[in-house]
């Protein structure tokens, strides 16, 4: 809305975060431009008894490159990923926290399922050794807000501290919450994003039995194929993405390189089903419509849509209907970066937003790889397989989650 405090994006945690396709802005963006898939065989545990044997792991992650191992031991993997992404986002923003009042820097980091790996491990300990041997650190390390809390502790941020837990919309909601805090004047800088370390035995089993995952075990790199007629489920991934958001006046005063501007957001609920989207995309359409109104923009002002696009049959079709409701017969180009990163669950929203920001900055639309067979029911302009040069001033980035949670964020060239 006009006359509100403007919001700048000044840092991207390593180019979309610590993700299956790269750690570091350059590596992440190069992977996007190359249409590189991060899917591969799961190495963390034996998957021979599972119907799905692959996912999007963050390879060779070593927290000691970012934090002393003694302090890192207090964190679960999802928190370690968030810390690393925060460190790299601050570096990208060229922001030294010591230059600011710590009470004016806040943190909002979402996670869909937090430290589920720790819960599984300690449950095994409980069964094998008994209750006396369960770690006293379990609760503090596995709760979803542990990431936001740990980031604040390690960097000394004393401003508003929050955690959004709305399944696959978690980090999209984190951006929205950060915008509210900055607009209200509660903080001048917000570290916001999402983190997930969900490739665990129990999580994989649950998503398998829910029949949500692709079963292309012989060809994992072509498994995630949003909007393609032969899509058969998503690829479960892990990772973290953090953005540095600042009030525009604060960014200007310190001479920051503004990567993009957050114009506004929209929120809605499907109020339909705990896992299935509304079949007509009603909630998603309402969400995008609200985001445009909050940004004081019209549908024709949007030059690109970063779709939630999970590669599931119902989800992609519902999002298509939602896009057509809002944008009519000539919607802007659409792609889903999940075709490359896989589905980072609670970290999906900011990962897609980061790719969108880089796309706006370079005026290149990220590709939707593995798009081979058009679906007659999906009548969209898909950015198929190759990046596309385009003059785009504003874009929408969608994130939708189990439970019917929807969030759309409008990003623009600064």
Brief description of this entry?
With 414 residues, this protein is an alpha/beta fold. 33% of the residues lie in helices and 17% in strands.
Distance between the termini: 16 Å
Strand order of the largest sheet: 5-4-6-7-1-8-14-13-9-10
Overall outline: globular
Which stretches are poorly predicted, pLDDT < 50 over at least 5 residues? none
What's the overall average pLDDT, rounded?
96
Number of helices: 13
Number of strands: 14
Q: Helical amount among residues, as a percent range?
A: 25-40%
* Class based on secondary structure composition and strand pairing: alpha/beta
SS strand fraction:
15-25%
Protein model, in words:
By secondary structure, this protein is an alpha/beta fold. The chain has 13 helices and 14 strands. The chain has a 10-stranded mixed beta sheet, with helices on both faces. The protein has a two-stranded antiparallel ribbon with strand order 2-3. β9 (304-306), α11 (313-327) and β10 (334-335) form a beta-alpha-beta unit. The longest helix is centred in the N-terminal third of the chain and has 17 residues, at 77-93. The radius of gyration is 20 Å and the shape is globular.
What is the secondary structure topology, with strand pairs?
Elements: E1 7-12, H1 25-34, E2 40-41, E3 54-55, H2 69-72, H3 77-93, E4 105-110, H4 116-129, H5 138-142, H6 146-155, E5 161-162, H7 170-184, E6 189-196, H8 201-209, E7 239-247, H9 248-253, E8 260-269, H10 282-295, E9 304-306, H11 313-327, E10 334-335, H12 338-341, H13 348-362, E11 364-365, E12 388-389, E13 394-401, E14 405-412
Parallel strand pairs: 4-5, 4-6, 9-10, 9-13
Antiparallel strand pairs: 1-7, 1-8, 2-3, 6-7, 8-14, 11-12, 13-14
Helix pairs in contact: 3-6, 7-13, 10-11
């Amino acid at each position: 809305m006009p006359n509100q405090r403007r919001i700048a994006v000044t840092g991207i945690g390593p180019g979309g975060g610590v993700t299956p396709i790269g750690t570091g802005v350059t590596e992440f963006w190069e992977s996007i431009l190359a249409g590189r898939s991060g899917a591969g065989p799961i190495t963390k545990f034996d998957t021979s008894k599972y119907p799905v044997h692959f996912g999007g792991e963050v390879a060779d992650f070593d927290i000691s490159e970012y934090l002393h191992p003694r302090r890192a031991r207090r964190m679960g993997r999802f928190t370690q990923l968030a810390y690393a992404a925060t460190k790299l986002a601050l570096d990208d923003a060229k922001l030294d926290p010591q230059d600011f009042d710590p009470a004016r820097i806040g943190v909002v980091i979402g996670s869909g399922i937090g430290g589920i790996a720790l819960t599984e491990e300690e449950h095994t300990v409980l069964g094998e050794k008994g209750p006396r041997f369960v770690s006293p650190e379990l609760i503090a390390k596995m709760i979803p807000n542990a990431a936001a809390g740990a980031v604040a502790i390690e960097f000394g941020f004393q401003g508003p501290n929050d955690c959004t837990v709305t399944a696959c919309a978690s980090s999209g909601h984190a951006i929205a919450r950060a915008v509210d805090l900055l607009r209200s004047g509660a903080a001048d800088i917000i570290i916001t994003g999402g983190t997930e370390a969900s490739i665990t035995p129990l999580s994989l089993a649950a998503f398998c039995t829910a029949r949500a995952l692709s079963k292309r075990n012989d060809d994992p790199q072509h498994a995630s194929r949003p909007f393609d007629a032969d899509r058969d489920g998503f690829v479960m991934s892990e990772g973290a993405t953090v953005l540095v958001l600042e009030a525009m006046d604060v960014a200007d005063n310190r001479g920051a390189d503004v990567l993009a501007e957050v114009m506004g957001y929209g929120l809605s609920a499907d109020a339909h089903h705990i896992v299935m989207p509304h079949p007509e995309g009603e909630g998603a359409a309402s969400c995008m419509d609200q985001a445009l109104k909050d940004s004081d923009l019209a549908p024709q002002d949007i030059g690109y849509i970063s779709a939630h696009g999970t590669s599931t049959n119902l989800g992609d079709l519902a999002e298509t209907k939602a896009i057509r409701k809002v944008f009519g017969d000539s919607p802007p180009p659409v792609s889903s970066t999940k075709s490359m990163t896989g589905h980072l669950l609670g970290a999906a929203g900011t990962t897609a937003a980061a790719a969108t920001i880089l796309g706006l900055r370079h005026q290149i639309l990220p590709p939707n790889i593995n798009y081979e067979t058009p679906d007659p029911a999906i009548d969209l302009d898909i950015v198929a397989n190759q990046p596309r040069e385009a003059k785009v001033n504003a874009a929408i980035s969608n994130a939708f989650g189990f439970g019917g949670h929807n969030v759309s964020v409008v990003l623009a060239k600064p």
